[in-house]
């Protein structure tokens, strides 16, 4: 069986669910656009039609490309689930686009999930040895199989609880089955999932920015290990796991989530701004101005500049129309991608000592090119400040950052990384400051310290 340590991981996505909301698919279309930053490879919506059947439309591309008037009109009804999927290096097949639609015991159901299940290979190979064939490489199919073949008959809540309990790892999952919308989170609470109210109905979404977009009011977060079901009687809560923790993915706060979202009570913009302030306190830079790497490090750069009493300038400009560069198959394509995406603003950086604030360094592609760009544009010094600790360990919970060999900080000192990217100085935020900025006592910081909250299932059978 595949060894997890050598595997590239995927499923970094966003989910939404609506219940009791007129034109649910139209609302899902808007909510998925608000979550577009969580995935651009493809998207889909599955809606409960008034006749009780489930309609599905999904395709490759951005939400606005996949859904036009006609597609949305084909999904009438007041309950639906939706999904946006992240582009990946080697598992990009259409068959992995979500939601998935299944029929079991005469009942159709749809499921979509965000995260990565660490014991999926183990559970799948057990089932395959017993004759079950899987159509995709997605963990969602496995989840759905376990729900559909659960031993509790038509008691879907019990079947979902049993499946969620068997699966280990990260998941925020929405399921539409038998006229009920279910939403659950893994027992560690890696991925965010919020519940909101819209008119007489309800919404669940990976991030609160999607609630805001559709005009829903935030009720609360779905708890780690919780399964909520929403039907005409309202919201009902149960737990699929008893010992739960609060290991929210710190990369959600650092990079992934939208700054206007609030994750478990923590404003993402507020967190980033404070981490920028703390970074400045830990590592001041001898600079004339501060610039961010647009857009993701803007909040941290604001904090760094205000704490250091330095002007925040637009030293780098982003071309909004270039696709994301991070997940490209080769290093040379990644290099070209960064150059197409970012340009230095010569009039601002010429003759200046520039402090560049980025949220993270993963392979080092972005930082190395930025440093060179700024020097070519006339900067007299480039000081890189990173608003997270060195990213040294691969993620097994759904953030696609590649294998350990690809991570620049895996086996290099800060000084070696500085030399690689060519900066005059390089400093990172400490893990302590990361916790302080979050105001939390628990977080997943495995990619920084190698302390994985789950077992890793290094299978060798
Ligand atoms: P790299 O160029 O490989 O060092 O990646 C770091 C850059 O990619 C930073 O500018 C981040 O904003 C961004 N980044 C960090 N994590 C991710 C991720 N999981 N997916 C896409 N981009 C990322
Ligand atoms: Fe997030 Fe890092 Fe933990 Fe993965 S390992 S869930 S990226 S904090």
Task: List the main descriptive attributes of the protein structure presented here.
binds iron/sulfur cluster, 21 strands, binds adenosine monophosphate, Glutamine Phosphoribosylpyrophosphate, subunit 1, domain 1, 461 residues, disordered N terminus, 2 domains, seven-stranded antiparallel β-sheet, 16 helices, six-stranded antiparallel β-sheet, globular
CATH homologous superfamily caption of the largest domain = Aminohydrolase, N-terminal nucleophile (Ntn) domain
Q: What is the count of structural domains? A: 2
Number of strands: 21
User: pLDDT average, as an integer?
Assistant: 91
The small-molecule ligands in this entry are: adenosine monophosphate, iron/sulfur cluster
Distance between the termini: 6 Å
The largest pleated sheet is described as: 7 strands, antiparallel
Approximate helicity band: 25-40%
Strand arrangement within the widest β-sheet reads 3-2-4-1-10-9-11
Class from helix and strand fractions = alpha+beta
CATH class of the largest domain: Alpha Beta
Layout: helices, strands, pairs:
Layout: E1 14-19, H1 24-34, E2 42-48, E3 54-60, H2 63-66, H3 69-73, E4 79-85, E5 100-104, E6 107-117, H4 120-129, H5 139-148, H6 156-166, E7 169-177, E8 180-185, E9 194-198, E10 201-205, H7 208-214, E11 217-221, E12 226-231, E13 234-239, H8 250-256, E14 262-263, E15 266-267, H9 268-282, E16 289-292, H10 298-308, E17 316-318, H11 331-341, E18 342-344, H12 346-349, E19 353-358, H13 365-376, E20 381-386, H14 414-421, E21 425-428, H15 431-438, H16 446-449
Parallel strand pairs: 16-19, 19-20, 20-21
Antiparallel strand pairs: 1-4, 1-10, 2-3, 2-4, 5-6, 6-7, 7-8, 8-12, 9-10, 9-11, 12-13, 14-15, 17-18
Helix pairs in contact: 1-7, 5-6, 9-10, 9-15, 11-13
The structure holds adenosine monophosphate and iron/sulfur cluster.
Residues 190, 249-251, 395, 397, 399, 444-447 line the site of iron/sulfur cluster.
């Amino acid at each position: 069986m595949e060894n997890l340590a050598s595997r590239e991981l995927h499923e970094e996505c966003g989910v939404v669910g609506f219940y009791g909301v007129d034109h649910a698919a139209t609302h899902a279309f808007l909510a998925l656009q608000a979550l577009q930053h969580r995935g651009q490879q493809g998207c889909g919506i599955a809606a409960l039609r008034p006749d009780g059947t489930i309609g599905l439309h999904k395709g490759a591309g951005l939400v606005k490309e996949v859904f036009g008037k006609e597609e949305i009109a084909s999904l009438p009804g007041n309950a639906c689930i939706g999904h946006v999927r992240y582009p990946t290096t080697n598992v990009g097949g259409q068959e992995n686009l979500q939601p998935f639609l299944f029929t079991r015991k005469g009942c159709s159901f749809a499921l979509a999930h965000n995260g990565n299940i660490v014991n999926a290979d183990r559970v799948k190979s057990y089932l395959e040895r017993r004759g079950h064939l899987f159509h995709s490489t997605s963990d969602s199919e496995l989840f759905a199989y376990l729900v559909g073949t659960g031993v509790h008959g038509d008691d879907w809540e019990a079947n979902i609880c049993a499946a969620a309990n068997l699966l280990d790892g990260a998941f925020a999952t929405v399921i539409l089955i038998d006229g009920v919308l279910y939403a659950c989170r893994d027992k560690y609470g890696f991925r965010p999932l919020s519940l909101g109210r819209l008119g007489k109905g309800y919404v669940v979404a990976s991030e609160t920015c999607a609630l805001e977009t559709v005009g829903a009011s935030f009720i609360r977060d779905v708890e780690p290990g919780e399964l909520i079901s929403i039907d005409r009687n309202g919201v009902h809560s149960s737990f699929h796991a008893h010992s739960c923790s609060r290991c929210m993915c710190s990369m959600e706060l650092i990079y992934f989530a939208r700054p206007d979202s609030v994750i478990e009570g923590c404003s993402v913009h507020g967190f980033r701004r404070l981490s920028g302030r703390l970074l400045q306190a830990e590592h001041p830079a001898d600079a004339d101005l501060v610039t961010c790497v647009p857009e993701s490090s803007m909040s941290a750069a604001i904090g760094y500049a205000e704490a250091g009493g330095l002007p925040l300038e637009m030293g780098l400009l982003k071309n909004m129309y270039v696709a994301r560069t991070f997940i490209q198959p080769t290093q040379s394509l990644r290099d070209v991608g960064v150059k197409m995406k970012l340009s230095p603003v010569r009039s601002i950086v010429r003759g200046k000592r520039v402090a560049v604030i980025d949220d993270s360094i993963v392979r080092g592609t972005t930082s190395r090119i930025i440093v060179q760009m700024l020097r070519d544009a006339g900067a007299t010094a480039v000081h890189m400040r990173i608003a997270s600790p060195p990213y040294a360990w691969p993620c097994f919970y759904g953030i696609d950052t590649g294998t350990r060999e690809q991570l620049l900080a895996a086996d290099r000192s800060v000084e070696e990384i500085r030399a690689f990217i060519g900066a005059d100085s390089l400093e990172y935020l400490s893990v302590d400051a990361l916790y302080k900025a979050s105001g939390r006592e628990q977080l997943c910081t495995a990619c920084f310290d190698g302390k994985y909250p789950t077992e890793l299932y290094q299978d060798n059978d």
